[in-house]
Amino acid sequence: MRDSTYKVAAGPEGYLPPAAAVMGVELPDPGQAIMEGECVDQDTAMKAIASKLVSAENPVFFPGPLILWDWKPGVAEKAAALKDLAEAVGAKMIPMPDYRPKYPMINPAIEVNPNHPNLTIVHNKIDVCLFIGVHCHYANIALKIIRGGTDCYTIAVCAEAGHEEAMISLRDAGICELQRLRELVIELKGGMSR
C-alpha cells in the first residue's frame, strides 16, 4: 500500500532511510518514468532531468561497468551519446568501474566507492548526480545511501525497469533517450543565455 505522503527526495534522510519500495513506491510501466516516488510520463521526467542538470552547480555523472566496458554491440555508441550529454551539461564524470570495496583508501575525486558513494558526493560537493550503466541492485543500494546521508539530487537512467531509490529514474533508456536529454539541455541553455 502506497504511503501518499512519502516522497523520494534529497536528504539527508538519516542513517537508515526506509526503502522506497517499502514505502509503496512502485516502478513505472513502459513509457513512464518515476519522479520523487510518483509515476509520470517519460517526457515530463526527461524535461525535469534536463532542468535539474542545467540548474545544478556541480552535476556529476557516475557511469558504471555496463557502459564503461564495451561488452556487447551498441555499448560504445551509448557511451558516446553519454559523453555528448555530459559535454552539453558541462558535467564531470566519475566512474564506478566495478563494485568491489575500495579499502583502505579510495580517491573520491576520481572514483566512486559503491559501498560509500556518499563520501564521493560530499568530497566533490555534488548537488546533482546521474547514474547510468550501474547494475540495478548496486544502483539501488548506492542511491539509498546517497539519499540517506547527503542532499544530492539523484537521477538514474536505466536500461531496465528503473530505480525507485532515485529522485528521478527513466526506464528502458538507450541512445535515443540520451540524445533527447542532450537536445533538452541545449534548448534550456539556449533559453538561459538570452
Going by helix content, strand content and strand pairing, the class is alpha/beta
- Quaternary organisation of the protein chains: single chain
Give the tally of structural domains: 1
Helical residue percent band: 25-40%
Outline, from the CA principal axes? globular
The unreliable regions are none
Mean of residue pLDDT? 89
CATH architecture: 3-Layer(aba) Sandwich
| CATH fold-level topology | Rossmann fold
CATH superfamily: Phosphopantoate/pantothenate synthetase
CATH class: Alpha Beta
User: What profile does the largest beta sheet have?
Assistant: 7 strands, mixed
Number of helices: 6
Please summarize what this structure is:
The chain is of the alpha/beta class. It has helices spanning 42-55, 65-68, 75-89, 117-124, 136-149, 175-192; strands spanning 32-35, 38-41, 59-63, 92-93, 128-132, 153-157, 168-170.
